[in-house]
Specification:
This protein is of the alpha+beta class. The chain contains 3 helices and 9 strands. Helix 1 (45-56) crosses helix 3.
């Protein structure tokens, strides 16, 4: 979702990707705006799937028959999770919407987590430890490179080793 503001009339809109807004000017005239959000560099569910498979050889595991769109990604060596993709109702995430949104939860350093939570597209972890996990919206808000970096760090943190070295 993006916010659009009409500078001419001071009207705020919340819009989805590729949406046409029709704004009444008076009883006889309307202005039409075509809103397009560029998402080719933004992270999506498919972005996570492709990156996990290409980088780590991980395929999504669907552990719950009642939640077929939930996908877990594990390390091959110790079977620990490093990412889980879900679709969650926006209100459950603290968003102002009943629509379902795709998210990914990744393990995260607590200090980095606090910094990320100040940025758009990042939320406290959904249904996992909020101390060591963070939720990333997969709606194009967060760019792919940032998500890839977080997945890499999560993969490392799931090793049970600090900075990749056994402690």
């Amino acid at each position: 979702m993006i916010k659009a503001v009409s500078s001419e009339f001071g009207i705020n809109y919340t819009v989805a990707h590729n949406l046409t807004i029709i704004q009444p000017i008076d009883n006889y005239t309307c202005m039409t705006y075509n809103v397009y959000m560029e998402t080719k560099n933004g992270a999506t569910r498919d972005t996570v799937y492709e990156y996990a498979e290409n980088e780590y050889g991980s395929l999504p595991e669907h552990l719950w028959t009642t939640f077929p769109l939930y996908s877990v990604f594990r390390r091959a060596d110790n079977k620990k999770w490093y990412a889980i993709v879900m679709n969650i109702q926006g209100r459950k995430l603290g968003l102002d919407s009943d629509e379902y949104v795709d998210i990914v939860d990744v393990k995260c350093d607590p200090f980095e987590k606090d910094e990320l939570l100040c940025k758009p597209g990042f939320l406290p972890a959904y249904h996992l430890s909020r101390k060591t996990w963070i939720t990333v919206l997969l709606d194009g808000t967060v760019d792919s490179d940032t998500l890839f970096d977080l997945i890499d760090k999560s993969y490392l943190l799931a090793s049970g080793r600090k900075n990749g070295v056994k402690s």
